[in-house]
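Thread title: Can someone regenerate the structure for this chain?

I was given the following input by a collaborator and told the matching structure tokens would be attached. They weren't. Posting the sequence so someone can regenerate them.
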Amino acid sequence: MRNPLRTEAEAFRFLVVAIVGAALIVGASRINTWVGVGVAAVVVAGVSWWYWRQPSPGPPPVKVRTDEHSAHRILVIANETVGGRVLIEELIRRAGGREAEILVVAPALNSQLRHWVSDEDQARAAAQERVQASVARLTETGLAVRGEVGDGEPLQAMEDALRTFGADEIVISTHPVGRSHWLEQGLVQKARERFPVPITHVIVDLNADG
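Best answer:
Regenerated them for you:
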């Protein structure tokens, strides 16, 4: 089934458009009933056109590994927990002393209002600082690591990364239950349903880390 509201940002935009459309209809109806009917028809036609032009969701474009003897590749998705001790220990364990390549992606977390007005500079700058700190700490362990800032929607950030980085597995790092928006949104389960690679969930308690 076609679902144009695949992310929170898209749902937020649709809500704003719906509110504006309803306001136009109400305003036009106060002028004249038939004017209101005409405006309503235009709004409905516009929404219908937008809905049907959305592409039907298909399988995400995951890069397939063909080089079986190359390094084990791990994709890491983390926000504020990206430099957490537990996450770093888990990555060292998963690398298991073998040759490994790690890509750390930090979504550019942003408020809905700033996202709507395309003001993402502050969010991307903060994410860049987090990912640089994480890469520096992991590099000290001898692992081959690089990092980048991803889309504000973590599922989209994973999909974007998998287009070019043929990961053998994904590690998702979150705050503990009760403090993690990602867990409230069911991110880990959604990722497991969407991507055909093993996914590990790591909980990082920054308060415990000090």
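Residues 111-119 have pLDDT under 50 and may be disordered.
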